[in-house]
Every structure is written in C-alpha cells, then in structure tokens.
Amino acid sequence: MNKLFIVCCFFLSIEIACAQNETNDTGEGVFYSIEEAKKKPLDVKVLILEHQSYDHVPELLAQFSNIEVLSLKGNSISVLPSFFSKLIHLHDLNLGENIFAVLPEELFNMPGLRILNIYGNQLTEISDRITELKSLYRLNVSYNKITQIPLSVLSLKELNTLNVSHNNISVIPVDICQLTSLHYLYLGHNSISQFQPCLASLPDLSMVDLEFNDKITSLPVHLESMKSLRLLNLKGTKVSRGEVEKLKKALPHTMIDF
User: Is the pTM of this model over 0.85?
Assistant: First the structure.
C-alpha cells in the first residue's frame, strides 16, 4: 500500500476524530431525517440530511434551536433561509456538493461557526465578510472556481485547516504567513507557480499539499528549516529530483511525495 496514502489517511483520521469530539456525536441527539427530528425538536444536536434531493433548506429546521452540527451535503441548495443565522449553537456546517454561487450572507451572522465545508459548489470567490467568522477553525472551499485567496481569509487567526484545492488559484498571497495557527494547507490542483517562502515561518504547519501545480519548478531554501512539516505532496509539480533529495536530507522526518 502506498505510504503517502497511509499517511494521508492518518491525517484525515485525526481531523475526523477531532470533529467527532467537537460534535459530541455519541448517538444521543443525532438524527438522519426531518421526520424523526421534528418529534423531538429541542433534542436535536446533530442533523444529517445528505443526498436527499432538497432544493431548499427545510423550514422545520428553524425549530431545532439547539442544533450544533448540520450536514446538507449532496443536495441542490443555492441559498440559506433568513432564519438560519438564528441557529446560534450551530458550529459545524457542511454545505458541500450543492449549487451555491456565493457564500450565503446568513453565515456572516454566525460568529460561533468553527467548521465550514462548502466544497463542490460554484463559488468564484470568497467574500471579504468571511472575516466576521472569527472562530473559524476549518474552511474547505475545494472543488469550486475560486481564482484567489483573499486577504480576508488571512485574518482568520484560529484557522487550523485551509483547503482551497481544485480551484483556479495562481498565486499564494505573501501574507499567508499571518495564519499562525495553520496546521494543514491544501493547495493541490491549481495553477500556482511559486511556493511562498514565508510559509516556512509558520510554527505548526505540518502538512502541505501542492500536487499537480505543474508550474512549480523550485522550492525556497527556507523550506529546509520547517521542522514541523510531516507531509509534503509535490506529485505533479516540476521540482527537480535533486532538489527533492536535498530536502529529504534536511527534513528526515518529513514524508515527501514526488
């Protein structure tokens, strides 16, 4: 079995475990249909409504005032209702695989939101209002049509995981080093041509995915000082094998896929 696959699964398992701990998903308060949830509206903590052909958010959701985790993944939703921001306990939201063209305005009135998955939609940009989500811990906007990482994202001081892979991004902002809490950075399958040297200054950055950015031809020497780095994916880039071997010697505890 491919070693990189094993390591990726390890990192993913850590993220899933952390998410489960944050959601207190032990079976109590967990529902998989509106019909079951509406019987005990105040008991609903976790609601999973995935792949149920919704083209709008069910109005009954407004009754679940204690909800903490909601997944609407795999539907055909393009807007959020006005009541949505009143779900003040909601901290984990999955809107993946829907048809959102913009980040819904209702999100920006939810300062307690910590996990936002909105991958596989039709976003072309990340609204500057995302700065209002000051508690955001994980942001996944992969598989969209985004062309840049705005400075507004770089103000999210709590951000641990940023996934902007599979977009149309060509530049990593110089100010990305402001994300001092960042552990996991997914940049794969874009059009990036340069690895920002300042990334080497991030104290806890442990995983960087740059795969299939075929315009990347070299890496900054600063990268050799990244002792926290445990996984670097360079598959599909044009970094030379000699440079990779040199980096492996400088970072013996880092797995590098090339």
Answer: yes
